[in-house]
Amino acid sequence: MKVGTICERHGKSRTKLYYVWKSMKTRCNSTRYKHYGGRGISVSKEWDRFTEFEKWAIASGYKLGLEIDRINNNGNYEPDNCRFVTHAENNRNRGNHKLTVDAIPDIRRRLALKETHKSIANLYKVDQSTITDINVGKLWVGVGL
């Protein structure tokens, strides 16, 4: 073990919740650093240990299939700024999504007129995958129909 690391023995390193915790920490420290740690986003010290994060998660309504979400997209991963949401809700809150509910009817109209996903994405300054997700019902379900 490296000097200064915390070793826990909890037997939960293969659970989905452990993966959520580990991924959250990794996002801020290495992968996608410019989108998290590079923006000053960090993980609360009280969540250094998985067991503490697990206690908070269970008390905060964690269920299998939900994802962690920062309420303030520019804030840290900490108890007062995090919640668990569905994948669709989490996608709506991503930093690269700049859509509002008011844009969805126009996007659906453009899709019905067979405009390309690329042209619509460029118009709204979002990823093409966002337009695809709207088209197939993964995002903004029931809006603008």
What attributes characterize this protein structure?
2 strands, 6 helices, single chain, 145 residues, mainly alpha, disordered N terminus
Distance between the termini: 56 Å
**Beta-strand fraction estimate:** 5-15%
User: What is the number of helices?
Assistant: 6
Q: Please state the average pLDDT score.
A: 82
- Domains (count): 2
Query: Helicity range of the residues?
Result: 25-40%
Largest sheet: 2 strands, antiparallel
Number of strands: 2
Task: Give the ordered list of helices and strands.
Answer: HHEEHHHH
Q: Rough shape? A: elongated
* Rg, Cα atoms, Å: 18 Å
Describe, in short, the structure shown.
By secondary structure, this protein is mainly α. It has helices spanning 16-29, 50-59, 87-92, 104-112, 117-124, 128-135; strands spanning 67-70, 82-85.
Explain this structure to me?
Helix content is 38%, strand content 6%. With 145 residues, the protein is mainly α. The chain has a two-stranded antiparallel ribbon with strand order 1-2. The longest helix has 14 residues, at 16-29. The radius of gyration is 18 Å and the shape is elongated. The model is unreliable at 1-5 (pLDDT under 50).
Present the secondary structure layout.
Elements: H1 16-29, H2 50-59, E1 67-70, E2 82-85, H3 87-92, H4 104-112, H5 117-124, H6 128-135
Antiparallel strand pairs: 1-2
Helix pairs in contact: 1-2, 5-6
